[in-house]
Specification:
The chain is of the alpha+beta class and about 150 residues long. It has one helix and eight strands; from the N terminus they run αββββββββ. β5 and β6 form a beta hairpin. It is globular. The protein starts with a helix and ends with a strand.
């Protein structure tokens, strides 16, 4: 009788731990590797974090040797001539159903700002789809990869 209770308790604990792990994997919070659209090379690490239910992303590592001291010379406003390292490039994303939307993203290479939506494709919790939407209706989607 006691063995049956212990086995049942272990099964419940295992299921709860598994569901907690799955929930953590379906959150965009974490460290993500970005890829250059033109060269296919790894470009940076962006840390996505949550603050008061809203999601942000900050450049925490530049992966190209020539980019270490780069500034956003084509940016406007408060980002103009600021270091790309440490820059918040993703902001104000709000959860909606099973994705995050109505945020903004900036491309430090061009200084352009876009509306932004992010999501996971089904069964791919380590690949984040990041869509930048220009005011003209044109858009581009990148895949960012979770850094383990």
């Amino acid at each position: 009788m006691i063995q049956t209770i212990v086995k049942s308790l272990l099964l419940v604990i295992g299921c709860l731990a598994g569901s907690a792990t799955l929930a953590a994997q379906t959150s965009p919070v974490g460290l993500w590797k970005t890829i250059d659209d033109k060269t296919g090379e790894a470009k940076s690490h962006v840390e996505i974090y949550e603050k008061s239910g809203v999601f942000y992303g900050k450049v925490v590592k530049l992966l190209r040797k020539d980019a270490a001291n780069r500034v956003c010379d084509l940016c406007s406003g408060s980002r103009k001539d600021q270091p790309i390292m440490g820059m918040i490039i993703l902001e104000n994303l709000k959860p909606y159903k099973d994705y995050w939307r109505k945020g903004n993203i900036i491309d430090p290479e061009s200084g352009n700002e876009y509306g932004c939506t992010i999501w996971f494709e089904s069964g791919k919790p380590n690949e984040l789809q990041v869509k930048g939407i220009h005011w003209t209706g044109l858009y581009r989607t990148q895949t960012w990869y979770r850094v383990q």
